[in-house]
């Protein structure tokens, strides 16, 4: 199975050492800030094979800079601990053997303090390297920029994984106290979906230009789209409750065959983290359990559930080309990290395209025409995992600021639910 967000490539970068130094400090500091509310025991737990301990995320992102930047580019650099090359490799076959992913939670030693010492050791060497530059500076700058985007992916994974772990704890601890709404406009209660029309025709999608992108976002290429419409907002919890009340989880006619088999085998009857109580349906959030807010976007649903809901609503999921065509002229949400998605505002037109939940599309994760994986270990993953995955677009409330863009192709297996995934309708 792929590590859904560990996918890397090399792209051109404008060589700006001062900017790289600032970005390195900011990204590494943000990761430490995300871990600050956790105890060493929290950071050790692995709640399922697809998740990783927080401690492992801290070490793996550090291993990246040590392995791909410092060892080849910093003369005289000494590894912090030679054993870490095995413990904290993820799927880089070309970088050597690695510990079994399913057993990462068994690595009780090194402890959290030693992992932070490892990060400090690597950070000191990285800052020295960023101060002086070095041979092959252009290639090194690309690797550093890549490592920063890689760490931002793991920042999102830290929150996904600890939420899953806390939800499995009988006392359901909170990661953080409730955070006040920081930017959503007042909304009309129960506002019906409005449809935004697009003419279709010959369009171009995919990354172009010198800004950073992962290799699976290109090459830019032409696609033909028939005229289509997108819902102006994401599907809400209230709408999903109506879907559930109509017996959707007991109706095989709404589901893809594999989806129906998954529903039966897993006994799904609601989104992940929902629970029916005497007070009504509740959901577990990073800020604790509370009643489901009917106006919020539904989150933590699988592709199978998103597809079944769309069929029940006499609509469908958008293709990723439709989504990107609609999103390319829109500003990316920059309200900063939040721990739960917000209701839609009253603004006209498309809303919630970024910054709330990743939106499932109807598109399988496949190579674009002309795609070629980057050479070397850092380009090893995108091409290898273009099978049995579905594409999600946009970004979520837990996506780091500056990490979202219209061409970003997230992907997960269709039964996955622990990502911050929801849906938008198309027709």
What characteristics describe this protein?
10 helices, globular, 427 residues, 4-stranded mixed sheet, paralog of FGE (formylglycine-generating enzyme), 11 strands, alpha+beta
How does this model look, in words?
With 427 residues, this protein is of the alpha+beta class. The protein folds into 2 domains: 152 residues; 228 residues, paralog of FGE (formylglycine-generating enzyme), CATH 3.90.1580.10. Helices cover 32% and strands 11% of the residues. The chain has 10 helices and 11 strands. It has a 4-stranded mixed sheet with strand order 10-9-8-11. Strands 5-6-7 form a 3-stranded antiparallel sheet, with no helix packed on it. Helix 1 runs antiparallel to helix 5, helix 1 runs parallel beside helix 6 and helix 3 runs antiparallel to helix 6. The two termini are 32 Å apart. 44% of the residues are buried.
């Amino acid at each position: 199975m792929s590590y859904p967000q560990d996918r890397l490539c090399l792209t051109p970068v404008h060589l700006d050492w001062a900017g790289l130094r600032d970005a390195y400090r900011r990204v590494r500091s943000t990761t430490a800030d995300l871990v600050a509310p956790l105890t060493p025991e929290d950071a050790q737990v692995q709640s399922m094979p697809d998740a990783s301990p927080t401690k492992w995320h801290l070490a793996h992102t550090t291993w990246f800079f040590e392995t791909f930047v410092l060892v080849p580019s910093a003369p005289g650099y000494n590894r912090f601990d030679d054993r870490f090359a095995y413990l904290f490799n993820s799927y880089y076959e070309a970088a050597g053997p690695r510990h079994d992913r399913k057993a990462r939670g068994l690595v009780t030693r090194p402890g959290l303090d030693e992992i932070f010492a490892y990060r400090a050791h690597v950070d000191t060497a990285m800052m020295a390297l960023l101060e002086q530059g070095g041979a092959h500076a252009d290639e090194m700058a690309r690797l550093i920029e890549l490592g920063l985007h890689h760490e931002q992916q793991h920042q999102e994974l830290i929150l996904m994984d600890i939420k899953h772990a806390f939800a499995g704890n009988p006392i359901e601890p909170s990661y953080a106290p409730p955070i006040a709404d920081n930017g959503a406009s007042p909304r009309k209660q129960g506002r019906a979906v409005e449809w935004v029309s697009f003419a279709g025709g010959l369009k171009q999608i995919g990354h172009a230009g010198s800004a950073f992108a992962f290799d699976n976002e290109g090459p830019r290429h032409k696609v033909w789209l028939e005229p289509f419409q997108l819902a102006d907002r994401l599907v809400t919890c209230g709408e999903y409750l109506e879907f559930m009340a109509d017996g959707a989880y007991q109706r095989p006619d709404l589901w893809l065959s594999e989806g129906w088999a998954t529903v039966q085998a897993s006994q799904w009857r609601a989104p992940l983290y929902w629970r029916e109580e005497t007070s009504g349906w509740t959901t577990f959030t990073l800020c604790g359990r509370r009643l489901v807010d009917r106006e919020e976007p539904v989150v933590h649903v699988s592709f199978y559930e998103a597809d079944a809901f769309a069929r029940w609503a006499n609509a469908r999921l958008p293709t990723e080309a439709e989504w990107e065509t609609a999103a390319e002229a829109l500003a990316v949400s920059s309200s900063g990290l939040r721990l739960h998605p917000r209701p839609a505002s009253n603004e006209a037109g498309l809303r919630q395209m970024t910054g709330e939940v990743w939106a499932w599309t109807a598109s399988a994760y496949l190579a674009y025409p002309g795609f070629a994986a980057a050479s070397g270990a850092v380009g090893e993953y995108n091409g290898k995992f273009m099978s049995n995955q579905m594409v999600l677009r946009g970004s979520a409330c837990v996506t780091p600021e500056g990490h979202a863009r219209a061409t970003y192709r997230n992907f997960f297996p269709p039964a996955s639910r622990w990502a911050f995934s929801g849906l938008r309708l198309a027709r």
